[in-house]
Amino acid sequence: MSDQPKGEISTDLKGQLEDARSPLSGMASAVNAGASLLVTAQSLLAVRTRRHVQVELPAYLSVQATWFVAFGLQMVLFPHLITNKLGLDGTELGLANLALSGPSVIFLLLGGVVAERTAGKPLLMLLHVAAALPAFGLALAIATDNLSYPLMLIYGLSLGTVGAFMMPARDSILNEVVERRERVGSRVTLQQGVAFAILVQFAAQILGLVLGGYADKLTRLPNWLGGVGIGPIDSWSLLTAQGLIVGAGAVLALFLARGRRVSTGRSGLGAAFGDIGEGFKVVASDPKLWAMTVLMFGVGIFVIGAFLVVLPIINRDVYGLASDGIRDMFVTFWMGAFVSSVALSILKKIRRPGRLLLLAQLLGSLSILPMVNQIPHWGFLMIVFGWGLSAGVSIAMSRSIVQDAAPKDQIARVLSIYQLGFMAGAPLGAAMMGGLADGFGPYGMGLVPAIGMVSLIAWVMIRTPIWHLGDT
């Protein structure tokens, strides 16, 4: 017999009857299950997002590597084809370098506006494909024995135009990549991101330079490496490789996020001039940005002019070398830059970046002075290595200062103006140094970049806040 009082029902039966009558039957358990499913989905999405963001920086660095391997090849092949293949002098080489770097003066500011208005990934893909075409065209001309100076000028103008849009697009994306990594817990700072990018840049350039040194000439390894002969490799084959490598960057860019677009409230091509003007106002109103732009203009005139024109002429006329000598010279330079970049990439934050920048540039400028005397080739390469050490510090610190000081919604425009200071000086310096090298010889030219840069560095130290950055 049950102890349940007559006329009453059991608790279990009562609960079942209430569930049967309630329209909310099972709601609590459903909500709990749904919440659990949502948490699981959010967790999986977070893991997937974190993995994608973590892949972005290696992908970005890989894209950068393809551009600079091709750039390293070009650094050897371009002067080699003009001075050794066509047998032309410093004036023609200077004008050809003017064609190569001149488009940046015209299109770089527009490139900064385009980089802000366009999503980064598709723009990088388009530019990498466009950069491959001039290399393929010049390779075809050499293979069919139709190489000429006008074709070299066309090649320079084409690739220089693509580069004008590439620089602000690629450099501004780095800020986005570092910001997204910080949101998922990464401790990589912007300064380290810049150092990593420059580290990859130098390593990739060295690889391209080494490959370019085998153009049309047999090169033997040292005896301790077996004395094996490598090359000669036809110039057209190396140019074909250059096109394929830089084109591969379009594929690697698929792993990047699409990128953000900045709305300035203006539209149309004509409105680009308003955006450019606004960028100039930002740079002119910030003493740090203005000083860095002026400093880079001086580097373009005094340093890059000597680098692009005087050194290849010394290589040919003083040491009697061809593409192998250009390779050794440029590899030595960028190896020095690589070493200093490795050291900088270890440091998360440098307390006084401006002071380090100016001291590095001062030492690099003074290292040019021994070139006024005839020195052995090994001594010449030691000077070039020291020059590279200073350049690695200078490039990393200047980019870090500019990217840190620039407003986040105008980074591409500010970078394009900063780069314009450098790129506007480079063609002027190349043309000037080419004419002076023919008139006074390569040795006398060592005084011009050294005196010019030391004077400019002194002005920046005294009249701008760069030296005192980080003091407060």
What does this structure look like?
With 472 residues, this protein is mainly α. The protein has helices at 11-21, 27-85, 90-117, 120-143, 149-183, 190-212, 235-252, 272-285, 287-317, 323-346, 353-366, 377-405, 411-444, 447-463; strands at residues 219-220, 229-230. Strand 1 and strand 2 form a beta hairpin. The protein has one domain (54-256, 272-468): Growth Hormone, Chain: A. A two-stranded antiparallel ribbon has the order 1-2. Helix 5 (149-183) packs antiparallel against helix 6. The protein is built from 14 helices and 2 strands, in the order ααααααββαααααααα. It is globular and about 75 Å long.
Summarize the structure.
By secondary structure, the protein is an all-alpha fold. It contains 14 helices and 2 strands, in the order ααααααββαααααααα.
